[in-house]
Every structure is written in C-alpha cells, then in structure tokens.
Design a protein that fits this description.
This protein is α/β, with parallel strands linked by helices. It has a single domain, classed as Aldolase class I (TIM Barrel, Alpha-Beta Barrel), CATH 3.20.20. Helix content is 43%, strand content 14%. The chain contains 9 helices and 7 strands, in the order H-E-H-E-H-E-H-E-H-E-H-E-H-E-H-H. It has helices at residues 13-22, 37-51, 64-70, 84-91, 104-113, 141-151, 164-173, 182-185, 190-202; strands spanning 28-30, 58-61, 74-77, 96-101, 121-124, 156-159, 177-179. It has a 7-stranded parallel beta sheet. The mean pLDDT is 94. Condenses 4-methyl-5-(beta-hydroxyethyl)thiazole monophosphate (THZ-P) and 2-methyl-4-amino-5-hydroxymethyl pyrimidine pyrophosphate (HMP-PP) to form thiamine monophosphate (TMP). 2-[(2R,5Z)-2-carboxy-4-methylthiazol-5(2H)-ylidene]ethyl phosphate binds at residues 130-132, 161, 181-182. One of its GO terms (cellular component) is cytoplasm. It comes from Leptospira terpstrae serovar Hualin str. LT 11-33 = ATCC 700639.
C-alpha cells in the first residue's frame, strides 16, 4: 500500500494502515509531499510502531534522512530523487530500495548505468491513468508492463489505477506485486479491500 492522506475519507491514516495490516498488506510506503520534516518524522515513527507487530516493512517515499531517523526498512525513489546507488551506500545492503520507472527510457538509462542494479524492485508507474498522480508520463498499459517483464528479472511492482477489477490482468502481464493507493486509502473497509486484493493476487 502507498499512503495518501487526502484520500483517507473514512479513517485517519494510522487507522487505514492498521486495518490494511490486519487485511494482509505486505508492505507500506509512506508518502508525504506536503508536510514538513518534523511532522513527517513523527508520522513515520508512529506508522512504524503500528506495523512492527505485524512484521510489515515500512518504506519512506523519497526521504533517506527520514528513513534513517525513523528506523524504517527502506526507501522508494523516483527519477528526480537521490540516485539509488547513493541510497544503497547510505542505507546499507539490508535496506529495501525501490525505484520508479515512468518510461522505457528510464529502464534503458538504469541498465546503462548499472547492468545488474542492486534494487529490491522497480515500480512501473503508472500502469493505468490515475487521479492520484497527475504529473506522470503516459501510462505504461498492460503491453508496456509485459514488455518490461521480458527485459528484466528484477521484481516488478505495478502502481497506478490498480483495483479489484483489473488486478488479475496486471498480474498476468508480469507484475510481481501490486501497489495500491486510493482503493485502500479511500475505502470504508480497508481491511476487506486488502483481503480481496490479496486473494486476487494469490488466486
């Protein structure tokens, strides 16, 4: 799950995270674009406390400093963030590090820089058009996702417009994992939605 507080219509973020953990979410990425560093750190520590009993890893979006200070499990990086190799150097070999790829050119650039990148996953973003992020490149679509699957053995996380009705097709196109934002954050019952998506993935 990727968090987005403005989309948490029915529960506060902490409760959404707790309910999704009860529903079987296997990783949470904390994304905070509008808050200051102090508030971000306090929130990260709180979310980490919620997830620890469930043994669910917490990733911090963009901010390596917040990751270190909060004792999070890793970071998710975009194309304009600190280079992933620097993140690996700072966080160490055990940290979970993922990188968003918005275009095929992003993938080619990654491989040219390091033919065997030490990344835990790459995120295809977005698979489908989404209202959550409006400043992204054109959607990859299922064909683009399948193309990337044929190019690499790095685990692929699909994000962008993922919901119950299209989850199976995304998995069949080659995704190893699904990252969900609004479908869980905006749900009246995040636990139920998480359980339903998990069943789709493991069907």
């Amino acid at each position: 799950m990727v968090t987005d507080r403005p989309l948490c219509f029915h529960h506060n973020l902490a409760e959404v995270v707790r309910l999704s953990a009860l529903g079987g979410v296997n990783l949470v990425q904390l994304r905070e674009k509008e808050t200051n560093s102090r508030q971000f750190l306090e929130l990260a520590k709180h979310i980490k406390e919620i997830l620890t009993p469930f043994q669910v890893p917490l990733l911090i979006n963009d901010r390596i400093d917040i990751c270190l200070a909060a004792g999070a499990d890793g970071v998710h990086l975009g194309q304009s963030d600190l280079p992933w190799m620097e993140a690996r150097r700072l966080l160490g070999s055990s940290a979970i590090i993922g990188l968003s790829l918005e275009t095929k050119e992003d993938y080619h650039s990654l491989i040219q820089t390091e033919p065997k990148p030490n990344l835990d996953y790459i995120a295809v973003s977005p698979v489908f058009d989404t209202a959550t992020k409006t400043n992204t490149k054109p959607a990859w679509g299922l064909e683009g996702l399948h193309w990337l699957r044929t190019q690499t053995t790095i685990p692929i996380v699909a994000i962008g417009g993922i919901k119950e009705s299209n989850a199976k097709s995304v998995i069949e196109a080659g995704a190893d994992s699904l990252a969900v934002v609004s479908a869980i954050c905006s749900a009246k019952d995040p636990k139920f939605v998480t359980e339903t998506l998990s069943k789709k993935f493991h069907a």
